[in-house]
Amino acid sequence: MGFFTPWFLAGAVAVGLPIWLHLLKKHKTTPLPFSSLMFFERRIQSSIKHRRLRYLVLLALRMALILLIVLAFAQPYVRQAVTPASRTGEVTVLAIDDSLSMQAGNRLDQAKKMARRMVAGLRLGQRAQVLAFGARVQVMSEVTDDHTPLNAAIDAIESSDARTSFAELARSLRSIAQSIQLPLAVHLYSDMQQTGMPANFNDLRLNAAVRLEPHPLETKEVPNFALENVVAPRRVYDSRKSRVLATIAGFGNAKATRSVSLALNRRVIETKTVEVPENGRATVEFLSLEVPYGNNRGEVRIDSADALAADDVFYFSVERADPRHALFVHEAENSRDLLYFKAAMEASGQSAFELDPATPDQTANLSPGKYAFVVLSDVGAIPAAFEDQLREYVRGGGSVLIALGHMSVARARVPVTEDRIEETRYAGREGERFQTAAWLDRSHPSILKDDRWDDVKFYQAIRVAPGTARVAARLSDQTPLLMDHQVGEGHILVFASTFDNVANDFPLHASFVPFIQQTARYLGRLDEGPPSVLVGSFEELRDSREKGSAVEVVDPKGGRVLSLEEATEAQNIQFTSAGFYEIHRPNRADELVAVNADRHESDLTPAPAETLALWQNTAQGSSEGGAAAAGEQKPLSLWWYVMLVVLALAVSESLLGNQHLSVDKEAA
Q1: CA distances from 367 to 37, 330, 381 (A)
Q2: pTM of the full predicted structure?
Q3: Order of strands across the sheet with 256-264?
Q4: Per-residue pLDDT for 177 more than 80?
Q5: End-to-end CA distance of the chain, in Å?
Q6: How far is residue 246's CA from residue 591's CA, in Å, rounded to a whole number?
Q7: Please, which residues have CB within 8 angstroms of residue 328's CB and are 6 or more apart in sequence?
């Protein structure tokens, strides 16, 4: 019990007033006229009997009356579970969290057990629906009053590797309420993970037809260790230069030592120990990765011994392959461009391409089809047959990089593309006569978003009419510096300067290496994707050339993901489970994709009760009163009950007081 205005309790001191009236003001002497007092003997009369309390029942009534009046002014209340008023046609929705964090302990089983109890308590004819939610919401049953399909839907819910999204649940509840045009009483069974809350609280908004009742499975933080991230190469060309870096994170943990193991194709290669600080992170580096040729399944594991084992392993895919060959055509008297280009290609230590140099005369006996891409570095005349082969090579999906320099001045057109050469822009190295790259298209694959070319000096550039080509870079005088032609299925990239540190000083700048490496990957169609992706990511299954061909996808459990019809028509696939997916394409090499759960799920800290209360306040029932949610504790004022007792005591005191007064008069 509590009081709304407790300061009025100080008035309880007034309970002494009835005692004072009964004790000190009780004895009164009525003077009587008498002729003479000479015959009376003088005596001292005791006052003790006058100080005795009389009419104790009346005194108790008056004291109780004062105390109750004081209590009424203090406005007492008690907390009581308020049962909401039933709303016409209300549908009970049982939303069960099946995200990764619900695998901790027996959380999911506990949630399903609570949901089954709710189904058992439904009134006759009361309709309900079962939802499962993680990153997205799944409707597990229709709206029905039959308990059998509801219980079957609850039993069918299985834990997933998805991330919790309360915003997605709120959006779905708004949609359901709008579609069925009936009020919803939503019972939410979840661990109420804080990381599942959206950054914008407005995303949790629920309309007036929804009444939310959360059932948190956890109210305090649970310690947990997780393999937060693994940095590993996607492809390996030299095992001695490959490294793996793992990050171990602790959430709500004390300082502890953990064992970390690196495994390849289910075989442990190396194990190390690491000390994880309190609520902190630690890293472990494995200095070698000996992998066989082909696709390999890599794993890093920790021995966390905590409630959530699903985040104790991190998967990554690594492919061992030999470098592919690329043809570099240059003039015999100029080898500087080959030197700089090759050094940039090998700067990473894991070059995916091996350059085969050749002069224009040597190309007559070469077939470009066996190369990943071809570079024409400031060449003069090339054999016409080889140039025709290059055009066919590009139409079939090959790629060519053309650098223009002083040898191109004598030509009226660019090799292969036949673009018109308009003029040569030249500035001497003395003084400040040079051009700079004034604009870059940072969305082009050859240019990184953080590349800076503004300090590169260009002394000579060949001005080419770009035609329909995509211009990816321009000099300060608006001369196109980098142009991308798409011809058939392939690309021709034209660089309007050279790579020899003569027409420019580009090879001396830090931006040269990433430009060459990105361009080589782009032209060689080398997909250097990450070694792993998150659950919920999408993968493209086919391009325009593979339309109609069957693609087979095998999930981590060994089952086929696509039906026969989907295998020939599906354009992409979404990864829904952690583990390894195998993708078999008819015209390309098989692909092994490693998928990991979002590590936001590893932080098991529940959302504060205040946050849940605010969320409930966005869903205060329908217009019929905004009744409290079932089981909510609300204060119930006792003022009226106290005043009724005061009234009864006042009547009793009045009657008893009149009775005693009449007796005293008769005695007098």
Answers
A1: 156, 16, 17
A2: 0.72
A3: 235-236, 313-320, 294-302, 256-264, 267-276
A4: yes
A5: 49
A6: 23
A7: 338, 341, 342, 355, 356, 357, 358, 375, 377
